[in-house]
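Q: Hi! First time doing this. I have a protein sequence and I read that you can turn it into a structure. Is that right? Here it is:
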Amino acid sequence: MFKFSRNDDNQQRAFELLYQRHKGPLFRFIKKSINHEHDAKEIFQELWFKIINSKEQFNHQQKFTTWAYTIARRLLIDQFRKSGRTITMNGLDASSDSQANEQPLKQPENQFETKQMAKALDHAISLLPLNQRQTFVMKHESGFSIKEIAQITAQPIEQTKSQYRYAVNKIKLAMERFK
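A: Yes, that's right. Below is the predicted 3D structure, encoded as C-alpha cells:
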C-alpha cells in the first residue's frame, strides 16, 4: 500500500499486486456477509474504488488488511441500512448455544458427502447474525486474530470473542447431522 500511495512510476504495478493478493479474501468476506452475488460484486467494486480514492489517507502504521476490511464492513452496514434488510436466525437462537455438542464431526467418506457438508456449512454460516457471520468469516477465511477483528469492527475484544463463540456454537449445532 505504501508503494501504491506514492504517485510514482511503480504505482500501477503496486496496485496490481495489492489487488491480486487481497481480492479473493475480501470478496469472500463481502459475499458471505451479504449472501447476494450481485450486491456483493457492487460492494466489492465500491470497496476498491474507495481504496484507490483514499490511498493518501492510509495510515502506514496500520496493516492494509485491517484498513480494507474496516472499509468493507462499513460498506456492508450501509448496504443493509439502504435496503432495509434485517438479519434473522431462521430458528437458531442464542438459547440453543449451550446445547452444541463438543464431539468432532465425522470425516466424510466420499466426494458427495464432502460437497453436502460444505454446502451445509455455507448455509449455517449464512444463517448467522451479521456480526457473528463477519467475525467467523474474518477469523476462518481471512485468518485475522480476535484482536484484529475487534479493531476492524471497532468493538471491545470481549464482545468479539463472544460473537465468535456464539457463531461457532451455532454452526456446530447446525452441523450435528454430520456427526
